[in-house]
Amino acid sequence: MHSEALKFTNRDGLQLAARLDLPLGRKPIGYALFAHCFTCSKNLKAVANISRALTSEGIGVLRFDFTGLGESEGDFADTNFSSNVGDLIDAARFLGERYQFPRLLVGHSLGGAAVLQAASRLPEVQAVATIGAPAEPAHVTHLLASKREEIERTGEAEVVLAGRRFRIRKQFLDDLEGTRLRDRVGQLRKPLIIFHSPIDNTVGIENAAKLFQAARHPKSFISLDQADHLLSDPSDSLYVGAVIAAWVRKYIRHPLEEGKSLAQLIEDNQVLVETGAEGFFSEIRTGRHDLVADEPTSVGGTDRGPNPYDLLLAALGACTGMTLRMYADRKQWPLKAVRVYLNHKKVHASDCGACETSAAKIDWMERLLELEGPLSPEQRQRLLEIAEKCPVHRTLHGPITVETSLKDQAE
Fold this sequence. Notes:
Elements: E1 2-9, E2 15-22, E3 30-35, H1 45-56, E4 59-64, H2 81-98, E5 104-108, H3 110-118, E6 127-131, H4 145-154, E7 156-161, E8 164-169, H5 170-177, H6 181-186, E9 192-196, H7 206-214, E10 219-223, H8 234-248, H9 262-265, E11 271-275, E12 282-286, E13 289-293, H10 308-331, E14 337-348, E15 361-372, H11 377-387, H12 391-397
Parallel strand pairs: 3-4, 3-5, 5-6, 6-9, 9-10
Antiparallel strand pairs: 1-2, 2-4, 7-8, 11-12, 12-13, 14-15
């Protein structure tokens, strides 16, 4: 995904820091707005993983820091749940003025409660997703239990949350107590999907049950088995992102499904590959199709996709199968299926009797064909010969020139 830093001004005149994540090499089919968890920030790894999954489905994502948190201006002590909802609405308006109003709201923990509270005030929103959200915002006051008496008595107190110090004032507690979220959920009238872990020790699973019971259909619940509240394991946040991306496609339709031609969707007929600042994980955009590539963990990757040589073998295998399918159809032969098994390795040139090269090592690709169907021995032999003529096979055996240049930074 492509990501850029932004700032926008909230209703109190404060500059809030944000990141806009965009699909690779294409215009978004819609936008989502993400609200992070209590005292967290937009840069939480779980937030980035969920955003990446959404951008891979063509959805742009704006994630921002609430007032007084992360890189945003303001004093956290002056904020409350209502001001968070206000920040969320200001972010939606900024997105609408600069790009397009969000059609999906995603909120984590107290951010989940905030998107539920804000959704009815944002008519362009078509779907809402919550992750580990409390049924009532006042639920978070249990995190302040050791300081509750001091806050009530003196009007404020310093608390330590996740190893960081925050000043909490009584107005924060009063605002939480005065919010009746489940009433708002019952009036939501928008598709809702609720994610929650049965072992969440911060916001118990009973909160998901209360929200689900209060909501009207269409509503869905996904259990995050073995996940903690912050989705610390990357596999959990990647799973949440993938499920939201699949679910929301019912409500945010692809431009191709809305009557736009394929030619309008594909720009310049290019393959675009982007590798980020960390690790080897790469996103691939070809036409209107998305792929990924990575390296195994043994060499420093995250094993979230095939490595480049696997993709090369896949191209050869796919081309082989398509070529044999085309030939058999033209000949009207009873070929039911083609399976191509491939392997790649580096071997010493001296071990290859058919190779004419002075190089010490060569690339060796093994290709095993399994042809299903009542074919004669002669037909099977001919298909074996045709496999050698597939276009990718010919490309690999022919002279190849790769011309590399730098793109102008001003473009």
